[in-house]
Amino acid sequence: MATRLRQISSAFYLFLLLHCLLIVAVNCKTLKRDVKALNEIKASLGWRVVYAWVGDDPCGDGDLPPWSGVTCTTVSGGDYRVVTELEVYAVSIVGPFPLAVTNLVDLTRLDLHNNKLTGPIPPQIGRLKHLKILNLRWNKLQDSIPPEIGELKQLTHLYLSFNSFKGEIPKELANLPELRYLQLHENRLTGRIPPELGTLPNLRHLDVGNNHLVGTIRELIRIEGCFPALRNLYLNNNYLTGGIPAQLANLAKLEILYLSGNKMSGIIPSGLAHIPQLTYLYLDHNQFSGRIPDAIYKHPFLKEMYIEGNSFRPGVNPIGFHKVLELSDSDFVV
Questions:
Q1: What H or E segment, with its residue span, contains residue 217?
Q2: CA dihedral 76, 79, 85, 88 (to 10 degrees)
Q3: CA-CA distance, 84 to 31, in Å (whole number)?
Q4: Rounded percentage of the chain residues whose pLDDT exceeds 70
Q5: Which residue in 59, 65, 155, 293 has a CA-CA distance of 20 to 30 Å to 187?
């Protein structure tokens, strides 16, 4: 009998606990700052987004679900909710970057890719101190990349490719200690690639292809111990000059080296054969000459080496069949 009473008592207390939690969840309101910001964004967006954003509270209210693409988190203590993720992509958003986004200071992910956003990224982007993923690729954004992005110390993924950014790559991006993936290809960037990027301890993927960049690889890797984690280096279709320095072999984790479509010259150093995991080596459409060292042909992991459009001696042959290297979103976004 006593055991039965204890079981009933435990079940009753569990019921009370769940009931209290339900009351907290129902009465938990979204921070007014975030409600105001999302409603300002809603007012500026097109019908394709607005039709799915029902109600005044973006985190849901009563029977109304959270707005599509909006993720909210209850803060410690359960008193209120904040918006932590905003993913509104491929819905043909037209117009300038919504300034109200920069008031969502608890965001960890901001994904507005594949829309028709225009104008600059506002410098207020630097307010989003918790941001880990910033994906704005495939828009029509313009002007310079704001150096304030360098204030986002938790950023791991930065995707700004396929826009119309101009000016130089801000060296402030080297202030992002957690950055792993940096995609800036298909813009109108000029100047030299900041060698300070080589100090990023976690950078795995650097893509600055299809811009108007100048300089040499020697300048890029001049800092001792640079790019310790880099696996993929895309420098293709720019205006880089000079040769491939032997010191490039110090990038011990490099797997993809994409130098196609520049104005580089000189011979290919045998040291490239000492990069243990080198898998793709694209040298085509430059001004390289001489022979390619036998050690490179004997590299155990090299699957492709493309050499067309250079001045190599007769008898120098490619490895594998050339194809444009395209990595899917799943290779990057976590």
A1: helix 217-220
A2: 170
A3: 12
A4: 86
A5: 155
